[in-house]
Amino acid sequence: MAALQTIRSKGALLVGVLGLALFAFIAEEFFRSIETTSNMDRSQVGEVFGKKLSIQDFQTMVDEQSEVTKLQMRMQGQDGNLTDQQTEQIREQVWQQYVQDQMVKHECDKLGIYVTDGEVQEALRLGNAQSLQMMAGLFGNPQTGRFDLAQLQSFLKDYKKTIQQAQQANNPEAVEQIMMVKKLWDYSEKQLRSELLSNKYNMLFAMGFVSNPIAARAAFDERNIEKNAVVAALPYTAIEGKDIQVTDEDLKAVYEQYKHRFYVPVPTRDLKLIDVNVVASAADRADLMKKVQGFEQQLRGGDEVANVVRTSNSEVPYTNLALSKQAFRQMPDVAQRLDSMAVGSVQPAYYNQADNTINTLKLIAKQEVPDSILYRQIAAVAATPEARKAQADSILNALNGGASFAELAKKYGQRSDSVWLTSSQYESFGMTDESADYLNQLYTIGAGSSQLITSEQGAAVVQVLDRRKTVTKYNVAVVKCTLNFSKKTYEDELSKINRFLAQNKDVASIEKNAAKNGYMLAELPGYSSMQNLIPARIGGSQSKDCVRWIFDEAEAGQVSRLYECGRANDHLLVVCVTGVNKEGYLPYDNAQVKEFLTSVVMQHKKADKALALAKNAKTIADLQKCNGCVVDTLSGQTFSGYPALNMVNTPEPKLAAAIAKTAVNKNSGLVKGAAAIYLANVTAQATKADTKFDAAAEMSQYAQGIGQRAYQSVFNYLMMHKAGMVDHRYQF
Predict the structure, then answer these.
(1) CA-based angle 261:262:265, to the nearest 5?
(2) What is the pLDDT of residues 345-371, one digit of tens each?
(3) For residue 538, what are the CA distances in angstroms to 96, 315, 481, 541, 544?
(4) What is d(CA 149, CA 155) in angstroms, rounded to the nearest whole number?
(5) 0.90 exceeded by pTM
(6) In sequence order, what DSSP letters do the residues of 61-112 get, joined into one string?
(7) Can you say whether the dihedral through the CA atoms of 623, 628, 633, 636 is positive or negative?
(8) Start-to-end Cα distance in the chain
(9) 398: phi > 0 → left, psi -120 to 50 → alpha, else beta; which?
């Protein structure tokens, strides 16, 4: 009872304590939910129409595209390794594709448009979709060059079995290649669905517009009726501008006319950059030349070429295989020297400006071999290398004894199909010794012959059925060393710019003194997170740190720290933020907007002065009396083509219209163009030869043209004003 009495006497206090405890619990859950939401937001790369893309999903898409690109490179005879710049380009492509796909999907969802499985199958059957062109190189019809669905279906049907056969033959390279082809198909299938949906949306616009015979005839005439004219022009550059005054009222009036140009869908920054690209000094070049000359002497002295190339850290790994000139297409400096070299000779060390390398090379052999070989093989599948060699001997003996190749292949669980092997499918630098040895043995087999090809781990019986297109191939060792700057050269540049920044700490002083100290101050107005220019052009991890500072920390008037960046750590970057612009229309007094508007007002006022000077001109001779007048002749001018006089160099649609409506031997009257006042005298008219008006075809073409322009306009409008795009790629 005493305890109850105590509780009753302290009731108000207990209620207060319980209330505080309950509030603390609710507050803890509230802040935890905020933290969770914040963490989710920080993991978002971007957003389109409310569809958020996480960094995990974005990276998966980038990895997928990277693997496809690597496979394409290997199919073209390249090594399949991506540079940082190529990876950055892939990131940009993936983002742009994501934006486009989401915009199309958003609109199609509202309209009830979708792609059926039947439409996908029909596209596969036809084989002419853009997204199938990569697959056409693997599953293509030899007669048409188009994608062949039957070949793909056969591959997919036998996929697991083919993998097992390659594994049994202890051929990991074949396993990897087969799996990569499967990945390429999976990627192409997704791209195909996106392409078909985009085509449907595009077709909606194309079919939503119709033409008529009158409009079709007008469009035909605009392209095909040609006129010759003598044109006199009084360029605005001939008008003095020193007395012309431009007021804020002038700028505001013109701003309303051009306001649509200045809308930005995301926040932007106005920047000025000092970007020092550190390059090798004369001393660095002399040092590398001396080293390469040492490797040149080793090649001349008969040292083992693979060791020489390896110890030189050459950009081109040695492949002990004769390669066609096509393999050297990325190295034209090497390709152009091959034919002039004798076998066994060594090229003196030389500098190649195109790729900034110092080089030497030795031609080891030159061979005349077929570019294409039709062959088939049966791989030995026994458990050990010795057993595989014995098994292959047995297969070869059976073939030589008249056994059926198809029956033997079936006996060992393999296909007997023949395949064409062309140089472009395998030629690359840095190929494994085992692969090179296989190919060297393959190319010694005559047409109609069977032979055993062995390696340390495997053995196979190969039968060559045909050999075609004999070409010259070269076995060459290439020492190609990039000319890089030394540590001393870098430190000298670093010390120099640090001294400059210590003396110039604000935007004004940097603008004033940059040129005096040998630095170019590059302007980058309206820089947005969607542009990604700094990481793409300069690269390196600190370039991304710089962009994060620009968007997450910097304010107008601030100067960044010095960033040591670049893909080869070869850039010194300083950024001045001269303006911070919010999403929406840039104001008329924004520096870049004001500069544009000022030029427009000046042009208009000069045009008015030019018109006043030429107001009484009725003929070309009259206009020639004005100081600065120029005369030129236009031939084959159509209404749809914008003429540009050589001495004015500005396309003029108003001049095209004036010439189109002026009769032969008549004057057009004065025309106020974008860059000059014009007067034209039409001297001749004709219709283009070999053209005939087809009303139905013209109506269809005209309507499709309008539809395509409407599609692009709607797409641009949605992206700028409706998509609600968020781009945070710079944070990752």
Answers:
(1) 110
(2) 999 999 999 999 999 999 999 999 888
(3) 20, 22, 22, 10, 10
(4) 10
(5) no
(6) HHHHHHHHHHHHHHHTTS--PPPHHHHHHHHHHHHHHHHHHHHHHHHHHHHT
(7) negative
(8) 66
(9) alpha
